[in-house]
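Kindly review this protein for my students:
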Amino acid sequence: MNISSIVVQTVPKFLDEVVESLKNCEACDYHMHDEKGRIIITIEGEDVSEEIGKLKIIEAIPHVITADMQMAYSEDELDANIKVINESDAVPTVLNAENVDVESVVYHGDLKKRDAELQEFAKDLSNSTGVK
């Protein structure tokens, strides 16, 4: 399941008409608007293609200037990332051992290098463009 928030823009003189169209539209859920013509809605879909289809319906509403996705949540993506975290050993075994001579511990400055999959996951999170 995917959920995305969308900012719809119209001119103030058509605001009431566009808000009413969005409220009556089965492709989205209306949440709020301001006097400048910005309207916040959400759409849901089983996948991205279903969401894109709903976005096209919204863009076709008369007097909608733009309808842009702002935030997206993907249940499948979240589940995959949680699996990576749960299956990764980010803490070296030596740090969990009870009888370790502290003098024998060698620190190399980066515990993330212990698990390549966790490191890739961290890179994906810090990539704000979403493009690899």
